[in-house]
Amino acid sequence: MRTSLLILLTLLFQSCTNKNSxxxxxxxxxxxxxxxxxxxGVRMIPIQTPVGKxxxxxxxxxxxxxxxxxxxxxxxxxxxxxxxxYESLFLPMAIEFYEYDQLGSYYSDQPTDSILWTLPRFVxxxxxxxxxxxxxxxxxxxxxxxxxxxxxxxYALKYQQxxxxxxxxxxxxxxxxxxxxxxxxxxxxxxxxxxxxxxxxAKGDFSNPIYTQLVTTEFYTKYIxxxxxxxxxxxxxxxxxxxxxxxxxxxxxxxxxxxGGLLKDWDRTADLAKIKTKTLTIGARYDSMDPDxxxxxxxxxxxxxxxxxxxxxxxxMWDDQQTYFDGVAKFVSGL
Length: 335
Description:
The chain is α/β, with parallel strands linked by helices. It has one domain (38-335): 3-Layer(aba) Sandwich (Rossmann fold), CATH 3.40.50. 40% of the residues lie in helices and 17% in strands. The radius of gyration is 20 Å and the shape is globular.
């Protein structure tokens, strides 16, 4: 019989403590004080960039010297908000974890200089955040979802010596392959809908409310979050509301269906063999990313594992939570 998530989390919590220090561990876990002032774990971290210094928003939950997870959100230029469901996973496991808005995202500074929106610059930002938070190879697990998965792969390829574990959630290692799979899913939509999409796209009218609503109701509810839009969890709605559109368009492209931004030629598939860190890739049956490709990624990684969410979509941490959380909990506990 499949072990229940509650029992698993209880065992994991017990493994983080011993008989003599259990009470102190629990007491310390909920102490978020940074410098004598209790701020609920929120900390603005200064980041040095080619055009000056800016601040990025982070929020710490808990204290665990052995296991610390830094979460990289997607978008690009969404926010940590749509991943707040991780609080339901990591808090019961007594894991220390960090929500984090990347530069340009809602709770962090939002400069407008286009020189900032490059992968190497984002990688150096993550490294500066790591140093500021005091994470190292004895405890540092990097979890990237969607665009955050791209950033996590790039970080690992440069700084894997700092990692204890890596989780690539719902992201392919090739942007051209993602574009091709995205096009395949699009072609399965009804012809009249495709004609409407093409009409708006030919005019470059990607922000037209009719176009954006059709993309949401006809595509997102099938492959991004697999439930009626009216049932989408509030953190998803809040995060989408706070997206930095100009940064998203510059990096991703003007639409989900037009992946033609700065990432259009990005492909790290041939480099996966260089990542020796224990890594979990996650895909879902109804994902906008190819689940078979993400399984292949786990096989190309020297220490890769794969988690398949049979009922989930791109946000399977919401629409297939039991499978997703059980799989992530098992991976983290095995590091």
